[in-house]
Amino acid sequence: MKSIILLTVSSLLFLGAGCKKEATNPSNPDSPKACFTVPSAGGVNESIPFTAECSQNATNYRWDFGDGSHSSLKNPSHLYSSSGAYTVQLKVFGTDSTKSSTISSSINILQSTVKYLSGEIHTDSTLASGNYIVVGIVTVTHATLTINPGVTLYMSQLSSIDIGIDANDPASLQANGTSSVPITITAAGNNQTNGYWNSIIFHSDVLSSSMAYCDIAYGGGEYYADGEITIIGSKASIKNCNLHHSSKYGIRLEGTGTGITIENNTITQCDINPIYVAPNSVHLIGLTNVFDNQSKIVIANEDFSLDTASWKKQSVPYRLENELFIRSATGSVLTLEPGVEIQMGNNASIFVGFDSTSLGSLVAIGTATEPVKFTSYNTSPAAGDWEGIGIYGSLTSPTIMKYCVFEYGGYSGINRDFDPDGIIDIRNCSATIENCVFSNYNTCAITLNGAGHFDSFINNTLNAPQKTGIIIFPNWVHTIGGNNTFNVNPDRAVVVNGGILSQSSVTWRKLPVAYNLAGNLDIGSAAGSTLTIAPGCTIKINGGHFIRTGNGYRGPGALIADGSSDTIRFTNGMNDALTGPGIWSYIYLDNYTMPGTLINNCIIENGGSESFYGMIHVNYNNNAVITNNIIRNSLHYGISLSASSPTLSGNVFSNNVDGESYITY
Predict the structure, then answer these.
(1) pLDDT for 278-319, tens place per residue?
(2) What b/e sequence results for 488-520 when a residue is b if at least 16 CB atoms lie within 10 Å of its CB, and e otherwise?
(3) Which of 22, 187, 374, 625 meets the CB 3.0–4.6 Å disulfide criterion with 191?
(4) How far from chain centre, in Å, is Cα 505?
């Protein structure tokens, strides 16, 4: 088994800084003037800083370090591989490339401390001072590795430091610098290339580890551990560190996330994004980290399965590239705090619960000024970029979404049975949606399947012209609240699927848009069911469909449509401009229609497609009251009766093809 290798030859610190400057040419004060500063001495394999800030009127730089190496940077760093005296030359050019200025100086490179860190560390060890070249994979097991302030680790190509391996090999890293004396972890030699080395990896079940005031650069080179810091498990604190120039991520967090703290770090210039994080660890990212303006915090394609956690508003959005499931056998509650923005990848979805044994709840409560936002991550977003949010197995404490923005969703091309049908899909559970905005979606804003319904649905705006607003089943239409704005296809603002209304007594309230009945509606149950349609409602019935009460197979039922204060309208479900007789069937009051059934002061038009029947047909029942209605444009009769004597008065008939009066079979 390998052991840690530390080879110490000698030690030398920089002896001071020298400055060389070419004399000013008084005859041409705008000509370039070369000047640089450099330590007068350094050590082998130490990063020597060269600074040309004192040059004047310079736009381009040409360094010759005296060992055959060159640089065109303004302020480069350089490592000398052997000792000796070297002459360093700087040539600068001005805006006129024919004019230049040259200056040179010497630097003495002495044999310095040469320390190599490699192999396996099995006993507590301390890197007290100086510079170390890390070779290959350094593994720390059953031990604590301490790195003191001021130490520099030069990481060789594809090298990494693994802290612990699994539960049988606990280990700890304590790399805590200070604000004035940080720890530096960077690429060896002059290899300032993103991804030159791999990662510092904290494996599962490690002991408590800490990194503070560390400057970390040019890592992230390995696929499975593609952060400069990779945490697989728990108990790692990363504070006040500067992570930059990763080929992938600055920090990658995986696992349950217990004991992780990520705060006060600056993570910039990463080729992909600053942080890649498992859903169970997102809440551990503090609020005081600094990122590039265009960065995202990438959410892994895993389950959120904690009992409860909150995702905080960060200075950059979260990015979900695939699917997020919020679920566990005992139930998981994810809270999104005001101002959180989640940018959804192409075809991405969020699933809240899944079935009766996989429960979840989403609480996304923003404010008027800081809404929670679900949007596309594309630079040129379009409707249908992402799929939707499926709410399928809500807890006793249901999903709540207030002051949220949903935009550019509604992709419908995957077609799995469990994929959302709308930008929000509620199936066999309930949710509260208040003060939310739905815009620029592809298919439908909200679909409610099975027993899916609203605990509250008020003050929302649906803004997608020519698209569908809400699709819902008859038993739950009454859960649509008031003060909602529908800027959608007027014939598909609220689509009521065909089905049975078996609630004991419900009311469909007046909305600013019509209800569009997309199938047959049966009202009835063993205990009796009553549907009340509020004054002012419009019910649009699609081709060939009907409303029926009290069918023998369903049970007693009643319809109350009293438009005394504001006329109720039953009409065709097509565009208002496409009117005519026989577009829909009839209102059928069957033999189990209950007392109290009332159709009063309604407009009933453009139906009667069923042969020999009227737009209102009463079958073996005397309980209905049908009064003061306008009944017009039936393909057959206005009202037809079969062995029935309902109360009829004040009705006005016109343009009914087979007759304006009643007919009795």
Answers:
(1) 999 999 999 999 999 889 999 999 999 999 999 999 999 999
(2) bbbbbbbbbbebbbbbeebebbebebbbbbbbb
(3) 187
(4) 40
